[in-house]
Amino acid sequence: MPKIVGRTLLCATVAATLLAAPLASVSVASANTAGTGLVIAEAYLKGGSANAVFNKKFVEIANPTDAPVSVDGWSLQYRSATGSAAFSTSGLAGTVPANGTFLVTMAGNGATGAELPAADDTATLNTSGTTGTLVLSDQSQALTLPTGAIAAGTAGVVDLLGYGASNTFEGHVRTVDGGNTVPNGLVRQGTVDSDDNAADFSVTTTLTPTNAAGETAPTTPTDPTEPTEPTDPGAPAEAVTIAQLQGTTDTSPYVGKTVVTKGVVTAVYATGGFNGYTVQTPGTGGAIDLGTHTASDGLFVFSSATASRVAAGDYVELTGSVSEYYGLTELNVAAGGMTKLTETVPAPQAATVAFPASDAQRESLESMLVAPQGDYTVADNYTTNQYGEIVLASGTKRLIQPTEVARPGSAAAKAVEADNAARKVTLDDGGSTNFLTQANKSIPVSWLTQGPVTVGAAATFTKPVVLDYRNDSWKFQPTSPITGATAKTDLPATFSNVRTAKPQDVGGDLKLAGFNVLNYFPTTGDQLTGCSYYTDRDGDPVTVNSGCDARGAAEQEDFERQQVKIVKAINGLGADVVSLEEIENSAEFGQDRDAAVATLVGALNAATGADTWAYVKSPKTLPASEDVIRLALIYKKDRVAPTGESTILIDPAFTNARQPVADAFRPVGGTADDEFLVIANHFKSKGSGTGENADQGDGQGASNADRVKQATALAAFSTKMQTQYGTDKVFMLGDFNAYSQEDPMVVLDDAGYTDLGPALDSSEWSYVYSGLSGSLDHVLASPAALATVTGVDIWNINSVESVALEYSRYNYNATNLYTDDVYRASDHDPILVGFDLTGDTTPTDPGTDPTDPGTTPGGGGTGGGSTPVPTPGAGSAPVAPSESSLTDANRGTVTAPSSARPGETITIGVGAQYAGQRVNVWMFSTPTLLGTVTVAADGSVRVTIPADAPAGSHRIVVTAADGSVIGWTTITIDPVTGALAFTGADLTGGIAAALLLLAAGAGVLVARRRRASVA
Fold first, then answer.
1. pLDDT band at 284, cuts 50/70/90?
2. H or E stretch at 134
């Protein structure tokens, strides 16, 4: 039966790449730039669907050379649009004739359409008609490619086509018009590959499948005949229960058979693109034991003919054919295959279960009503503005980049990866609407219209949902389609407000920050020639796409929308020195090199109403060749001043990155002893690389070798600059394009620098990529600088917010989500560091300090070993209350989970009246400081139970900044017996190690000793 494809999840991996697309040029893969190799010439992947031209799918391979080319041992490979694992493969055999073509056919979605010419080979791939990635490979082994633009020379890739909304492509993805029922395909313009799928391929309705013999039609066509009634109706449909139809594996035992079954309608998707509904066996659901419940009692019915005729609660009999549609068991029901029954039956109940950790348990609930139990946390919102879906993590913590907390390729990293997979589920909107297509931009986007959906927010389910499997992902679907026009009270889930209006108090006499300003380009596209643009729903240019060197705003009005958010965010930091990444290098446009940074400083001063800010001028010695983006340092004139001219590192290691810039500062009224050195950085990105820089598959992305060289050169540069500027207090900060446990950060750790984010703010991260949180942005301190640090805060205002709030998405939807505030001013979060040059610190002995929360992760990780690091906050170290002072009179209304496991991050309810206040959270019997944190708008804080916390009964105590008790409650720490909290996964040694890494890093407490003030 014809299918209508549900929309494909555009994962955050391609999300980040597409976000960068209008702003940065990308080095991409080549298959045949000279026209001397095989290429994919034509792809028709909608075969057999309603209105299809042909009844099968095909890929045509072209040979532009004068010699035949054998494809023996080669393969055609496919991966879903959101996939990141190994490709599916189908081996090839045969020869592509000189200047000829080779036709590979695949099974169609149905029987609609004409016959293809005789195939030269057949493939067993199950490709999507609208979105995915095809690879012509010169090897039979499955490829595991990184997402994004594929690097030139990638082993095994002869040609690659990323189409629809795929996360893997050459140059730019080739969009596809319409769903499976729109009869079109993709055709290459000639046989030369320019390394850009969007440029090389076009959508066509004129399909010309041609085999190696040059045939374009079946060799033995037959004339159509009038249909006749069958003389043998065949066996009658077999009556089965829904559980029998579903079976106990991921594939129905009745695939391809016609069956009859009964069920109660639980969800209806007559609109929105699903074209069907779900039914469930009467009386099933409720309190389910997943240990014994092995077959689902729910079923998705694909039936555009009957979907509009049913309503939730109807008891129906259904006759149709069973199929597995990309992993979802479906019953395909024609117009006459549904009958409403009149008998009274018990209604199905929503299954009250936590999200299962295994696919087998999830399969046992497929298409059933569920009332999700336990905690859920928003993990990703990048595709929410396109597809109306939100990635969640079961439990109270986000999904974490494995190399943020564990060494690449280690057992601990694999354990984190497994934990992410066990906890990931997507909350969808009950439809396949792509809100970014022109036809749908007038529909208010789901979820975001009703309020902010921020990564890290708690998701609370208020209504049952259906557990569904689409686009290679498990999803919670509402029981009817929703959009931004749906009343907030009718949504099945709500989200807590975790936004903070200002950074946490980091203490100190001075503050330093790093800020990636998202290609801040005062030189707009309309000032240059050749620019192409991304446009809003009215066709008005918003950001530069390609064709010129500008990477930012298209026009002045767009630039002003970008600038106001950046200005408010920088001024809101309260920093005295700020390192800027991704700011225009105006020299590339024939202007003064500092013109762009001068423009930003002018805007900052205009906002403060005073001559507050100044910038460090470019030095006399500049690199011979630079990128169109650069680094810059700005500072508050009444707080600090540069001690001399800045210095740019000129080193071959940075030929493909932004050269670091250094300068020393002295506080106003200070002495030479108070001077400190700041080095701004922006290492090579992860997106591309060849040879030793190819993605090694260990989680570090491409160009890791170059980033290691850059880290090595930076360490040497720092040593030289300390001598040049006369201070050993060094802060190296910026966008290192490396997560905290990756090789470049280990190089800097081994050189003696401490990564302050993992050490002092380990529960926050600066970036969200592909639904995983981690920090690409760092501040590293030398030992002398470390001794002055009072606190660190990663101000989560950018990476956790939907891209729909960016200036670059202005007027993309009927709901205009842009506001001139700090939220989504960039895609990276700023990091703020407080430090005190008028005091010193005395590290306490970590072996005797009862409030020591642990040391930073070792094993070569950043900040490793037992390097003492200061506690966040200013003033003296927090003092624990005595246990005898904890009475019923001061118990208050503090709340916590009844139980937790060592290493688990939990939510503590303090009270909305304390929002914005800094509090200390302790665990007793032996008083252990879990953290000094700022209370969120909803009155909650999050802390991590120490990995070595003893099992048994404890008390969680919250104290105010002055030491007074706000309240306390009890909690039971469960023994480590093999079960992972909230997931049901086995607690292996790798998971335990990962939890240790997640929990560690708070550092040793530092008792502050203030010097007597000097007049």
1. very high
2. strand 132-137
pLDDT band at 854 (very low <50, low <70, confident <90, very high): very low
Answer for the pair 899, 973: CB distance below 8 angstroms, yes or no. yes
Task: Give the Cα-Cα-Cα angle 296, 297, 298 (nearest 5 degrees).
Answer: 90
Coil, strand or helix: which one is 151?
Answer: coil
- Per DSSP, the three-state class of 774 is strand
Cα-to-chain-centroid distance, residue 20 = 14
> What b/e string do you get for 378-416 counting C-beta neighbours within 10 Å, with b at 16 or more?
bbbbbbbbbbbbbbbbbbbbbbbbbbbbbbbebbbbbbb
CA dist 276 and 799 (Å) reads 36
Q: Mean pLDDT, the chain, as a whole number?
A: 86
Beta-strand ranges (E) seen in 814-879 are: 831-835, 839-843
pLDDT tens digit sequence for 738-778:
999 999 999 999 999 999 999 998 889 999 999 999 999 99
Element (H, E) at 557: helix 556-573
Q: Which residues pair with 104 in a beta bridge?
A: 59, 121
Identify any residues that bridge with 918 across adjacent strands, giving them in sequence order. Answer: 934
CA geometry: angle 1000, 498, 371, nearest 5 deg: 90
Instruction: Identify the weakest region by mean pLDDT among 254-268, 358-372, 525-539, 871-885.
Output: 871-885
Q: Are 822 and 791 in contact (CB under 8 A)?
A: no
d(CA 76, CA 60): 11
Q: Are 126 and 3 in contact (CB under 8 A)?
A: no
Please name every residue paired with 320 in a beta bridge, in sequence order, or none if there are none.
Answer: 259
User: pLDDT tens digits, residue range 105-136?
Assistant: 998 888 788 888 888 899 989 899 999 999 99
Is residue 998 within 8 A of residue 944, CB to CB? The reply is yes
Which residues of 450-604 form beta strands (DSSP E)? Answer: 458-461, 465-470, 473-477, 493-495, 510-520, 532-535, 541-546, 577-584
CA–CA dist 91, 516 (Å, integer): 46
What CA–CA distance (Å, rounded) separates 996 from 741?
A: 14
Question: Would you state the pLDDT for residue 228?
Answer: 39
Q: b/e map of 20-40 (b: 16 or more CB within 10 Å)?
A: bbbbbebbbbbbbeeeebbbb
Return the residue matching tokens 């969808």. 428
Residue with tokens 């990866």: 417
Hey, how many other C-beta atoms are within 10 angstroms of the C-beta on 341? 13
Compute CA distances 993 → 295, 414, 578, 859, whole Å.
Answer: 35, 10, 36, 11
Nearest CA-CA partner of 569 in 329, 310, 795, 255: 795
- Which of these, 9, 8, 13, 101, lies nearest to 58 by C-alpha position? 101
Using alpha carbons, select from 663, 513, 667, 511 the residue that is nearest to residue 578: 513
Does pLDDT of 576 surpass 60?
Answer: yes
A 10 A CB-CB count for 1012 gives: 4
Looking at residue 917, its pLDDT comes to 85
Give me the DSSP letters along 627-638: -SEEEEEEEETT
The C-alpha atoms of residue 836 and residue 629 are separated, in whole angstroms, by 32
Question: Kindly report the CA angle at 325 between 85 and 322, in degrees rounded to 5?
Answer: 145
User: Rounded to the nearest 10 degrees, what angle do helices 411-423 and 989-999 cross at?
Assistant: 90
- What does the alpha-carbon distance between residue 730 and residue 427 come to, in Å, rounded to a whole number? 45
Largest CA distance in the chain: 108
Find out whether 832 and 790 touch, Cβ atoms under 8 Å.
no
Find residue 175's DSSP bridge partners. none
Concatenated DSSP letters of 200-245: HEEEES------TT---S-SS----------S---SPPEE--HHHH
Chain centroid to Cα 174, Å, comes to: 21
Structure tokens, 849 = 């300090």
pLDDT tens string 186-202: 998 777 788 889 888 88
Q: What is the DSSP string of 63-94?
A: --SSS-EE-TT-EEEEEETT--SPPEEEE--S
pLDDT range class, residue 234, cuts 50, 70, 90: low
Q: What percent of the chain has pLDDT over 70?
A: 87
Q: Is the pTM of this model over 0.90?
A: no
